[in-house]
UniProtKB/TrEMBL annotation:
<dbReference type="InterPro" id="IPR028349">
    <property type="entry name" value="PafC-like"/>
</dbReference>
<dbReference type="Pfam" id="PF08279">
    <property type="entry name" value="HTH_11"/>
</dbReference>
<dbReference type="Pfam" id="PF13280">
    <property type="entry name" value="WYL"/>
</dbReference>
<keyword id="KW-0804">Transcription</keyword>
<dbReference type="GO" id="GO:0003700">
    <property type="term" value="F:DNA-binding transcription factor activity"/>
</dbReference>
<dbReference type="InterPro" id="IPR013196">
    <property type="entry name" value="HTH_11"/>
</dbReference>
<dbReference type="Pfam" id="PF25583">
    <property type="entry name" value="WCX"/>
</dbReference>
<dbReference type="InterPro" id="IPR057727">
    <property type="entry name" value="WCX_dom"/>
</dbReference>
<dbReference type="InterPro" id="IPR026881">
    <property type="entry name" value="WYL_dom"/>
</dbReference>
<feature type="domain" description="HTH deoR-type">
    <location>
        <begin position="2"/>
        <end position="57"/>
    </location>
</feature>
<keyword id="KW-0805">Transcription regulation</keyword>
<dbReference type="InterPro" id="IPR036388">
    <property type="entry name" value="WH-like_DNA-bd_sf"/>
</dbReference>
<protein>
    <submittedName>
        <fullName>Transcriptional regulator</fullName>
    </submittedName>
</protein>
<dbReference type="InterPro" id="IPR036390">
    <property type="entry name" value="WH_DNA-bd_sf"/>
</dbReference>
<dbReference type="InterPro" id="IPR001034">
    <property type="entry name" value="DeoR_HTH"/>
</dbReference>
<dbReference type="InterPro" id="IPR051534">
    <property type="entry name" value="CBASS_pafABC_assoc_protein"/>
</dbReference>
């Protein structure tokens, strides 16, 4: 709907400052001419839209303009409550629970039944199967550090097993693939680093304070290095039919293609490290690395070492 697009344009301009007309057109999948008509409509409605000329120009709003809080619709509130409830499945927070109650109370009683239906259409359950208490303690300490602008210290075990002591300025908690990560400025490395919470132990609040550094969260800076093509290795994996469903869960049904021999082929790309070797070995004997040959050889070497471990008597 045009009204929804107009409101969305205003929100984008508030959040991003200046935006190119072409970027708005691409975002809403309309022509640039349509965007300029929308801008004219907003101006006629009294919204102070400003067009800036030059290389750094674009479309923006007069400085200080804000939307009235009443612009939120019942569906907007339902979406917010759904998102908050989903996050709460992994990380309980009293303030967040109270916020959900406040938002629910704003809805008129006559619309309450529809509101409850909208907030129950789907839920994302991020809860873990194991060690929820230890995770909650870490999350609470990290949130306390973020709220009080206080550094946190901990011992960190890398994917290779190396343990180091770190002091960091906690900026952002990130939930990816059912795992929590801390995106923080590391004092020892003098740069932002990503830390997996399950690898952190002895988490404590450190002395002193810090100032938040500017980061653009919309760009997901923690994913930039991992996502670069140079950091990924293309793999061709062949799966047995009996674990086809597991391959589909990981890679999607479009990426699990049957071959002429009754197996299923997936072509994927991941960074090459110990996590990748463990990931492949986790499929057991029902997967075979076809390419590249050096990863195939590494998986074979690890598998032979596993066989040797089980030939010897158990360690006492």
């Amino acid at each position: 709907m045009k009204l929804d697009r107009l409101l969305a344009i205003v929100v984008l301009l508030i959040n991003r400052g200046r935006v190119q007309a072409k970027d708005l057109a691409d975002t809403f999948e309309v022509s640039i001419r349509t965007i300029y008509r929308d801008i004219d409509t907003l101006g006629q409605a009294g919204i102070p839209v400003v067009t800036y000329q030059g290389a750094s120009g674009g479309i923006g709003l007069a400085e200080g303009y804000r939307l009235d809080r009443n612009v939120l619709t019942d569906k907007d509130l339902a979406s917010i409550v759904t998102a908050l409830r989903s996050v709460s499945t992994s990380h309980t927070n009293v303030a967040r629970d109270l916020l959900m109650e406040k938002l629910s109370s704003i809805v008129p009683e006559a619309k309450n039944e529809d509101f409850q239906a909208n907030t129950s259409r789907f839920i994302v359950d991020y809860s873990m199967w194991t060690h929820p208490e230890a995770l909650q303690i870490k999350l609470q300490l990290i949130e306390q550090g973020m709220d009080q602008l206080q550094p946190i210290s901990f011992t960190y075990c890398s994917a290779e097993g190396t343990q180091t002591h770190r002091t960091t300025d906690p900026h952002t908690l990130v939930l990816k693939k059912h795992s929590w990560y801390l995106y923080a400025f590391c004092h020892e490395r003098n740069e932002f680093r990503m830390f997996k919470l399950v690898r952190m132990r002895d988490v404590t609040l450190a002395q002193g304070s810090f100032e938040r550094k500017p980061i653009n969260l919309q760009d997901r800076p923690w994913q930039q290095d991992w996502a670069t093509p140079d950091n990924k290795v293309p793999l061709t994996l062949r799966f047995h039919e009996r674990i086809r469903h597991i391959a589909v869960e990981w890679f999607g049904i479009e990426s699990v293609i049957p071959d002429d021999e009754g197996y299923f082929i997936s072509q994927v790309a991941f960074p090459e490290d110990n996590w990748l070797y463990g990931f492949i070995l986790g499929f057991g004997a029902d997967v075979e690395v076809l390419e590249p040959l050096h990863i195939r050889e590494e998986i074979r070497r690890i598998a032979e070492q596993i066989v040797q471990n089980y030939k010897a008597p158990p360690l006492t």
